[in-house]
Amino acid sequence: MEQRQRQRQHLQHPTSTSKAIDPENVKVIEWEDYDQELARLWSLSSALSQADDKKQTLQQKLQSLIQVKAESLKRSNELEEMRERLEARRLLMEKMSMRSKVEKEDAKNQEERLSMEVRSLLVAGTALSVARKRLQESNRLLAGEKGYGHLQKLQKMLRMRQQFMISQVSFLYPVKILVGPKQEQELESFPSGNRSGNSAASKPVNPGSLTILGLHLTILPFTKMSLFTDKKEVQRSATALGYIAHVVSHIASYLEVPLRYPLRLGGSHTYINDYAPSIEPTSSDLSSNIALSTNTKPAEFPLFLEGQDATRAAYAVFLLNKDIEQLLNYIGVKSLGPRHVLANLKELLRTIQSPEYIDT
Predict the structure, then answer these.
(1) Residue 202: closest CA among 220, 181, 219, 177
(2) Pick from 315, 322, 310, 166: which is nearest to 250 by CA?
(3) Which has the closest alpha carbon to 263: 278, 279, 249, 252?
(4) In whole angstroms, what is the distance from residue 356 CA to residue 345 CA?
(5) Nearest-5° Cα angle at 26, 23 to 30
(6) Under 8 Å between Cβ of 348 and 332
(7) What is the pLDDT of residues 283-332, one digit of tens each?
(8) What is the pLDDT averaged over residues 42-65?
(9) Which of 22, 58, 60, 210 has the fewest CB atoms within 10 Å of its CB?
(10) So what's the pLDDT on residue 46?
(11) What is the pLDDT of residue 359?
(12) Is 34 a residue whose pLDDT tops 60?
């Protein structure tokens, strides 16, 4: 009853916050329905209060959900950024891994090369050590009794022996200069050039005044043969050329010099050989000439005119002078010229018999 009275008072004395009542919309409630209507209003007021409470509760929950959602979105963005950074790091690690593999392969190749170089250095070091030992042994041998000094002594003895043998040849076939009628001067008293081939300081010797074993060598019949040529003079020149060939052959054998144009001795009928081809080979014949070069028979040229072609005989004299020039070059003396056969031979004999030859 007290509750109803309070409700009745509440309805009769509204609060200052209540809205103004519109007279046209006032609902007239009968007294009999007053309690029922009041109960209904009270239940509505309770329901409204409960709805407000639920609204507040839902608003609080929704606010918390919004905060959770925002936090979750923030976390998701952070995770996405972290995922991107992780992916970038993964790519960087892959690149570094590939680079590391390449560098590792390069390092392996360099290690293999260095290993090969080290092995080469070891082999070279071993070879150098062996060479050093051989050099020390060679130096020891050179410094010993059978060393360089002994070799020089042997060489000097060999030159003395060569000088003696060639002096015997010079004694058998003396080359002299005709001073006057029936007067000859010995070889040692000729004016002659020095070892360098410079003969400007001495008077030149007339080649026609030289003799070998008393015979003149006349080149004119070899260059200009006619019916009026003296046969005895031709025979004497052939004999003189045979003597010269004999002397040249002995000197070459004593000096151990293989002559470029070998001699076939036969006294006044001596021949000289030329292994060079008589004509220049063509390109088509080059291979066949190379294949047959070892089997090529040398061309022989006579050092005499009897029954021979004058051109071939003159070429034989030219080749003989080339052999003498070869021996002169071997002992370091310059030739006097292509037409000075006896003069070149004289210079060869004089130089070998000089005291300077032993000390060279």
Answers:
(1) 177
(2) 166
(3) 249
(4) 18
(5) 135
(6) no
(7) 444 444 444 445 567 888 988 887 778 888 888 889 989 999 999 999 88
(8) 88
(9) 22
(10) 87
(11) 74
(12) yes
Distance, CA of 272 to CA of 280 (rounded, Å): 21
pLDDT on residue 360: 66
Report the distance separating Cα 241 and Cα 283, nearest Å: 39
Query: d(Cα 336, Cα 346) in Å, to the nearest integer?
Result: 10
The pTM of this model reads 0.53
Residue found under tokens 């045979």: 242
Crossing angle of helices 148-172 and 341-352, in 10° steps, is 140
Helix (H) or strand (E) holding 154: helix 148-172
**Rounded CA gap, 244 and 207, in Å?**
14
Sign of CA dihedral 77, 81, 86, 87: positive
Beta bridge pairs of residue 302: 271
For 305, residues 6+ apart whose C-beta sits below 8 A from its C-beta are 221, 222, 225, 234, 237, 238, 313
Q: Could you tell me the two tokens for 78?
A: 């952070």
Give long-range contacts, CB 8 A cutoff, 24+ apart: 285-289.
none
List, for residues 331-347, the tens digit of each pLDDT value.
888 888 777 888 888 88
| pLDDT, tens digit (0-9, with 9 covering 90-100), for 138-167 | 877 777 666 667 777 888 888 889 889 988
Tokens found for residue 273 = 């050989």
Distance of alpha carbon 158 from alpha carbon 175, whole angstroms:
24
Least Cα distance to 303 among 227, 246, 231 occurs for 246
Token representation of residue 63: 């606010």
Please list the helix, strand and coil fractions of the chain in percent, rounded to the nearest 5, in that order: 65, 5, 30
